[in-house]
Design goal:
By secondary structure, the protein is an alpha+beta fold. It has helices at 15-21, 32-43, 63-73, 83-95, 104-115, 121-133, 168-186, 191-202, 221-234; strands spanning 12-14, 46-49, 53-58, 137-140, 147-154, 157-162, 204-209, 211-214. Helix 4 (83-95) packs across helix 9 (221-234) and helix 7 (168-186) packs antiparallel against helix 8 (191-202).
């Protein structure tokens, strides 16, 4: 599905037209000019304001400028100061199949390796929440669409990897792990204490990871993905 918003044209817009487009109260004479100017500045337009209306003199043209306009107008996200993590997520979800089903700390590592940039987990999860709320990313948690991962330490370094579900020995080890986990939880131990005891016994964690997919029917999803790929291919600083 394409973008819902219609970009402004380089022409004159009457006071009533620009008020409707920017969702500005036309009766608020005291703040009308300020509100119109703030909105057009945030959207990335160049303009000339008069009491009769606005002449649009310049429009967002680069992929990054167009993306910023969509996020502000359609998704109501003010992203100018932290748009790069959003670009990282959308790009890797679009082009890297393995990225769609892995723990968030592993996604953080993949982003650092691919883009040579460190992004906090809280920032990534905040963007994911916004993407999920706007139906751009959908989570699938049934057994068909999930994967199992294992976390363990080697020489003090935390390691994560997918469980090879075609390996009978590995599947048997994972089943024994979950059977023991169930046994400990049924024994009356709290979840935290059960997991501590399980770790002391097994020296690893097995867990299920849901698959996250871009939703082609989400708000402006197709246009957003197209712009993000173009931004990355041109270079983030030039996009």
């Amino acid at each position: 599905m394409g973008v819902f918003i219609k970009q402004l044209e380089k022409r004159f817009y009457s006071r009533s037209e620009i008020a409707e487009i920017t969702n500005t109260n036309i009766s608020d004479n005291k703040h009308f000019k300020r509100n119109i100017e703030n909105t057009l500045n945030n959207w990335g337009y160049q303009y000339k304001y008069s009491k009769a209306g606005v002449v649009i003199a310049g429009i967002p043209e680069t992929p990054k400028e167009k993306l910023n306009e969509i996020l502000l107008r359609e998704l109501k996200i003010n992203s100018q100061k932290w748009i790069d993590p959003f670009i990282y997520l959308i790009y890797l979800f679009a082009v890297y199949d393995d990225f769609r089903c892995m723990p968030w700390p592993q996604r953080q590592i993949e982003i650092e390796d691919f883009f040579n940039d460190k992004v906090s987990l809280s920032t990534l999860k905040s963007w994911f929440k916004l993407l999920e709320e706007n139906n751009i990313i959908t989570s699938f948690g049934n057994n068909k669409d999930c994967e199992y991962w294992i976390t363990y330490y080697v020489d003090g370094k935390k390691c994560r990897e997918r469980v090879n579900t075609y390996d009978k020995l590995e599947l048997k080890a994972m089943k024994m792990y979950f059977d023991r986990k169930k046994e400990l939880l049924n024994s009356g131990l709290s979840y935290g204490n059960a997991m501590k005891k399980l770790w002391s016994e097994e020296k690893c964690y097995y867990y299920k990871v849901n698959t996250l997919l871009l939703n082609a029917c989400g708000n402006c999803a197709t246009e957003i993905v197209k712009l993000v790929i173009e931004i990355v291919e041109r270079g983030l600083d030039d996009g």
